[in-house]
Specification:
Helix content of chain B: 25-40%
Helix content of chain A: 10-25%
Largest interface: A-B, 22 and 29 residues
Radius of gyration of chain B: 18 Å
Strand content of chain B: 25-35%
Strand order of the largest sheet of chain B: 6-9-10-3-11-12
CATH superfamily of chain B: P-loop containing nucleotide triphosphate hydrolases
Structural class of chain A: alpha/beta
Shape of chain B: globular
Distance between the termini of chain A: 17 Å
Number of strands of chain B: 12
Number of helices of chain B: 8
Oligomer: heterodimer
Largest sheet of chain B: 6 strands, mixed
CATH architecture of chain B: 3-Layer(aba) Sandwich
CATH class of chain B: Alpha Beta
Number of strands of chain A: 15
Largest sheet of chain A: 15 strands, parallel
């Protein structure tokens, strides 16, 4: 991500230590890293890829709040983010994938009342191949999770979403939602595989997945008002993924993410 | 302004328009009436350039140009506006943003500079007043969650923003209560000048109480079978179409 000015403006400092108890940090992912978010702290992390393979383990202690914005613009990178949430920990994450990449997020809710939210979007075009996955593991009671992942593929691009919600036997009163919504344009294809694996009996879990085409009627409508086909298409895609970016886990990132999407479209 | 000669159009193998002739001059208002399924909406769609329909015969001249050679957006930029019978919802795209791009595309086409943010806001305020459109709606997604009346007002608002030379309003009155109808129709009337023309497609005479037509045409089975002045609409309201279409039943 060549956005040092943006990061500077956000006041984020490169993260070097293995434990943090507050502040806004930027991590360029390379190799393996483990970071502990201290209890009761509020931490914000901007994550980007700077190597082709990375693994980031985040250990979020009791009552800590962690906000993550993860942007993948580097082609052919494989990123893994593995988050463990202790009691009443709250993690809110936004992930935007704009290149041929594999991005995997795993959230382990290991103690009661942990909350995890993920809003993701991938936009692929040309010959790009993107694979994203979000696994949420409810290992303890009274936790909640929300996953919304939106995918757009045009030209000959291929996209794939895999989402697992696992609810262990002891994880009673789990409240979980998972939604995968996708739009394909032209020859592009998107595969979505949402999965639920539930071993507890008192749970509220919903999931949904859609893959649709671009809305021809909307394109026609916009062109009738004088927009070119390209602008109409761009506007529609932007509209489709916009809520993910608008509700970015770190609010000040919304505009920047929006610009990145615009560039990609 | 618009000259339609022997226009035939099909969707798939099915011919819907079977030889339409119509001439519209600047300053005129034409009403097109007719029973359901007679081809009224298809006619509007073909004029707007909807690629779902294939023109198989005939020609359409618009401002001295071959209209059928122009893309949908070129027709729009040259001043042709279609008010949709079913305005489309576009999630995540605000009215304000959508119209800004549209207005500036039109300006670019005419070789004018894009509007500044302040100019644009002022224009939006002025134009939304014409149809008593709640200005909050312009910050919402296009037509999303709008009521039936709001959607139709929004069509006329867009018409006001784009100041078309030829406006084709496809059943703008359908689904409107009497107040919304008055507002929409008054809006259209206020936008009327000597230089532009309006074609209204409608089922009901009541719209024509507000938008008084110079000509009324009856479209039936893909042809205009009868034309008259505004008294024709009143007669149709009273007597229905039977007296006109009996001769065509066998076709």
């Amino acid at each position: 991500m060549h956005h040092s000015k943006f990061i500077e403006a956000l006041g984020a400092m490169p993260l070097t230590s293995a434990t943090v108890d507050g502040g806004r940090w930027v991590i360029g992912l390379e190799g393996d890293k483990s970071v502990t978010i201290k209890q009761n702290s509020h931490v914000e992390l901007l994550v980007h890829c700077s190597a082709h393979r990375q693994m980031l383990r985040l250990n979020v202690e009791r009552d800590a709040e962690l906000r993550i914005v993860h942007v993948v613009t580097m082609a052919e990178c494989k990123s893994n983010i593995d988050i463990t949430l202790a009691e009443r920990a709250h993690v809110s994450m936004t992930q935007v994938v704009l290149s041929s990449a594999e991005a995997k997020v795993v959230a382990n809710l290991v103690e009661p009342h942990a909350r995890f939210e993920l809003g993701g979007a991938f936009i692929l075009k040309g010959e790009e191949r993107g694979v994203v996955s979000a696994d949420v593991k409810h290992m303890s009671a009274d936790c909640s999770s929300r996953t919304t992942y939106k995918g757009v593929a045009s030209d000959n691009a291929r996209g794939k979403f895999t989402g697992l919600v696992y609810v262990a036997q002891d994880a009673q009163r789990t409240d979980s939602e998972q939604l995968s919504r996708n739009v394909t344009i032209g020859q592009a294809r998107i595969e979505t595989l949402p999965q639920l694996e539930i071993y507890a009996d008192d749970v509220k879990c919903s999931h949904g997945a859609t893959v649709g085409q671009m809305d021809e009627q909307a394109i026609l409508y916009m062109r009738q008002r004088g927009l070119s086909f390209a602008d109409a298409k761009r506007l529609q895609i932007e509209g489709f993924v916009k809520d993910i970016v608008l509700h970015a886990a770190i609010e000040e990132c919304a505009d920047k993410l929006s610009d990145l999407l615009q560039e990609k479209l | 302004m618009l000259k339609v000669e022997n226009l035939h159009a099909s969707v798939g193998d099915k011919e819907i328009l079977k030889g339409i002739n119509l001439e519209v001059k600047a300053g005129e208002v034409h009403a097109i009436m007719g029973p359901n399924g007679s081809g009224k909406s298809t006619f509007a769609s073909v004029l707007a350039g909807n690629e779902k329909f294939t023109v198989t015969e005939g020609k359409v001249e618009y401002l001295g140009e071959d209209l059928l050679n122009l893309s949908i957006e070129e027709r729009s930029r040259k001043g042709l506006f279609l008010g949709f019978q079913y305005p489309v919802e576009i999630p995540g795209v605000t009215m304000a943003n959508f119209m800004k791009i549209a207005v500036n595309e039109h300006r670019k086409y005419r070789g004018e500079e894009p509007l500044t943010a302040a100019q644009y806001l002022k224009l939006m305020r002025e134009k939304s007043a014409i149809v008593e459109l709640d200005s909050k709606l312009t910050s919402r997604a296009v037509n999303e969650g709008f009521s039936g009346g709001e959607k139709k007002k929004n069509e006329i608002f867009q018409m006001a923003m784009l100041e078309p030379k030829l406006a084709i309003l496809d059943e703008t009155d359908s689904g409107l209560d009497i107040d919304a109808l008055r507002i929409v129709a008054t809006g259209v009337t206020r936008l009327k000048t000597k230089e532009n023309a309006t074609v209204v497609i409608t089922h009901y005479q009541r719209l024509l109480d507000y938008i008084v037509p110079d000509y009324v045409h009856v479209l039936y089975k893909g042809r205009i079978i009868y034309s008259g002045d505004k008294s024709l609409a009143l007669k149709l309201e009273k007597e229905g179409y039977d007296w006109l279409i009996n001769d065509y039943k066998e076709e």
